[in-house]
Amino acid sequence: MNLYADNALLLAPLSGYTDLPYRETMRRFGCYYAFTEMIDASALVYARQRTEHMLTRGADEPWLGVQLVSNNPEHLAIAVKLLNNYHFDAVDFNLGCPVPKVTKKGAGAALGRNIERALDLFAIISENSTHPVTAKVRILDRGDAEPTLKLVKGLVERGAQAVTVHGRIAKEFYSGVPAFDIIRQCKEALPVKVIANGGVMGLETYDEMRRESGCDAVMIARGSMGNPWLFSELQNRCSYTPPSLAELLDVMKFHVLGLLDFYGEEKGIRVARKTILDYLRGRGFQGEWRGRAALVGSKEEFLRLLAEAPQYHNEEYWRTADAGKNADRRLSNR
Ligand SMILES: Cc1cc2nc3c(=O)[nH]c(=O)nc-3n(C[C@H](O)[C@H](O)[C@H](O)COP(=O)(O)O)c2cc1C
Predict the structure, then answer these.
(1) What pLDDT is attached to residue 316?
(2) Protein residue with its CA nearest to atom 31 in ligand 1
(3) Which CATH number covers residue 213?
């Protein structure tokens, strides 16, 4: 069984971002496959209430995977059984997170240094899950495909129905050109779909990833921040056209009010600050006003900010030839 359609486009799990309001905003522009943020298996075991909102699936969500991160076999087994009671389309295992909070527990990318352990943990997920199981890895070495191949082949032997390969090593975090050749070798070695990830910010980088890696599908991550239009750009193969000011503000409002609804105003507005900046960055707004937007403290203040936005926007932005193509809002990650 194929978990993903041909040429699928996936929204990555993004900690602190891909909650329900984020996904609902992306879905307006054609996002079909999406993941929750990563969830620590131990948090699921001990702090269900705190993690419960991360498991929330919207009534209209067509496809949703949940992602676990852990280096604790007992907690992982309990967490996976717990997830069996929820409606998910896949359970994904995080083997790539490089942030110290995760790696100091031996989880995420740290498991790349201990392949046997990584595979044993994945087997626990596979044996206990009633959902299809998948994994998301980073490449382990740019100069030598062997360790990465050993990891991904082992995952498939233990039941992975698809593998996402982020083409950067852990110490690179999120910068550098992805190692297309290693993703290609994974694709050639595996009987399941290989999803390529890393640096896809628009049609050009999408085409490059498809061509150079030969992957079955592509996962986008930072390119979607403040830019749900990326989904229609890639799926309709239309060149990037910046949204009009009215549309930009409308979509940002939908996303932010969704956050306030979902988390309640106090927490929601804190979560919304970075979201607002993602929408405003590089889109012709005055820096000083964006600085104020970064400190927004209530729903009322946010609505006031929206109303005054046109005053602080430089109309010239939309007329510059470059705004249509690759304005400075595209993350430079190379
Ligand atoms: C803020 C942030 C949070 C992330 N959270 C997760 C996560 O929860 N799980 C995961 O597998 N990867 C996570 N990642 C990694 C992304 O899914 C993706 O692999 C990485 O950003 C590379 O893709 P990109 O170059 O398209 O952004 C995160 C990345 C960022 C920047």
Answers:
(1) 80
(2) 222
(3) 3.20.20.70
Q: Is the CB–ligand 1 distance for residue 46 below 6 Å?
A: no
Of 183, 200, 235, which closes a domain?
A: 235
Which residue has the CA at smallest separation from atom 30 of ligand 1?
A: 14
* 165 lies in the same domain as 48: yes
Residue 217 and residue 293 in one domain: no
- Tokens 């994994």 label which residue? 135
Locate 332 and state its tokens: 């430079």
DSSP string, 302-328: HHHHHHHGGGGB-THHHHSGGGGTT-T
- The Å distance, Cα 310 to ligand 1 centre, comes to 32
- Residue 6 CA, ligand 1 centroid: distance in Å: 23
- Residue 320, pLDDT score: 63
Convert the pLDDT of each residue in 119-151 to its tens digit: 999 999 999 999 999 999 999 999 999 999 999
Write down which residue in 180, 206, 235 finishes a domain.
235
Residue nearest to atom 13 of ligand 1 (CA): 14
**Dihedral pair phi/psi, residue 138, rounded to 5°:** -100, 155
Do 82 and 196 belong to one domain? yes
- The whole-number pLDDT of residue 1 equals 63
Residue numbers of the domain that contains 131: 9-235
44 and 186 assigned to the same domain: yes
- Total count of domains within the chain: 2
Distance in angstroms (rounded) separating the CA atoms of residues 310 and 307: 7
If 0-12 CB within 10 Å is exposed, 13-18 middle and 19+ buried, where does residue 268 land? buried
- The residue whose CA has the least distance to atom 22 of ligand 1 is 198
Whether 334 is in a domain gets the answer no
Q: Which helix (H) or strand (E) holds 66?
A: strand 63-69
Any ligand 1 atom below 6 A from CB of 220: yes
Give the pLDDT means over successive 10-residue stretches in the chain (334 positions): 92 98 98 98 88 94 98 98 97 98 97 97 98 98 98 98 98 96 98 98 96 98 96 90 92 98 97 96 93 96 97 80 47 48
Q: Is 13 in the pocket of ligand 1 (CB under 6 A)?
A: yes
**Site to substitute for ligand 1 among 9, 11, 15, most atoms within 8 A of C-beta:** 15
